[in-house]
Amino acid sequence: MRHAHIYFFVLLLLTACKKNSSAEHRSSNIIPTNKTSDIKLISDVFIDIAKKQHIPQESKKEFIQRISKFEKNLYCFWLLDMNVKNGGFLQYLNNTKGETLNEALKAAEIMDIIRIQNILVEALQILENTSYVNNEPTFTTDQSKRLSELDKEYYSIDKENYIIGKVAQYIKSNPKGFNL
Fold first, then answer.
1. Rg of the chain, C-alpha, whole Å
2. Coil, strand or helix at 150
3. What is the pLDDT of residues 103-128, one digit of tens each?
4. Which architecture characterizes domain 4-178 according to CATH?
5. In this structure, what are the phi and psi dihedrals at residue 84, rounded to the nearest 5 degrees?
6. Taking the alpha carbons of 128, 131, 134, 138 in that order, is the dihedral positive or negative?
7. What is the pLDDT of residues 19-69, one digit of tens each?
8. Share above pLDDT 90 across residues of the chain, in percent, rounded to a whole number
9. Rounded CA gap, 144 and 90, in Å?
């Protein structure tokens, strides 16, 4: 059951690839990518990281302290990506309580995912102005609306295979960091 979220993400990647396979030519800021091989590479690396998550009571914070810096970057970005694709920033911030948002922002910077980085800076500003009830973030109507707008921005970027290309490029540039 612990690996179910990884397999769900792999399914999301495959769905994104299928949706975009017949898309028209994209703008020049998109990384040329062989989607099929990139998705397989990303899937294999995520599954390897998931296999390391074997301590049932271990928090996400404890887990990311135990894995390599390369795996940490990928894992934190993956948490963001999976949650946002599945239910938006509200889901991501509620599921993680924002604990990995700074790490996801650093990962986006390291992986040169600038277009997502700008969105994360704004999400972080919203989170910093959020109140908590019983250790759960409580968003105002205005904050929820802005997070919904950030969702749309994120989804429009994702339609271009920008994220898949950048993540695959990061893995390929750091093969030793992922034991490849």
1. 16
2. helix
3. 999 999 999 998 899 999 999 999 88
4. Up-down Bundle (1.20)
5. -65, -40
6. negative
7. 444 343 333 344 455 678 888 999 999 899 988 887 777 888 888 888 999
8. 48
9. 7
- What type of residue sits at position 131? S
Domain boundaries, the chain: 4-178
The H or E element containing residue 180 is none
Average pLDDT across the chain, whole number: 81
pLDDT of 131 reads 86
- For residue 166, give both structure tokens: 């950048």
User: Residue 19: what pLDDT?
Assistant: 44
Query: Which structure tokens are listed for 53?
Result: 């998550």
What is the Cα–Cα distance from 103 to 19, expressed in whole angstroms?
29
Please tell me whether residue 117 adopts helix, strand or coil conformation. Answer: helix
DSSP letter (8 states) at residue 159: T
Sign, CA dihedral 51-55-61-62, equals negative
Residues 5, 79: Cα–Cα separation, whole Å: 9
Determine contact, residues 20/161, Cβ cutoff 8 Å: yes
Report the C-alpha gap between 57 and 11 in whole angstroms. Answer: 26
CB atoms within 10 A of CB 157: 17
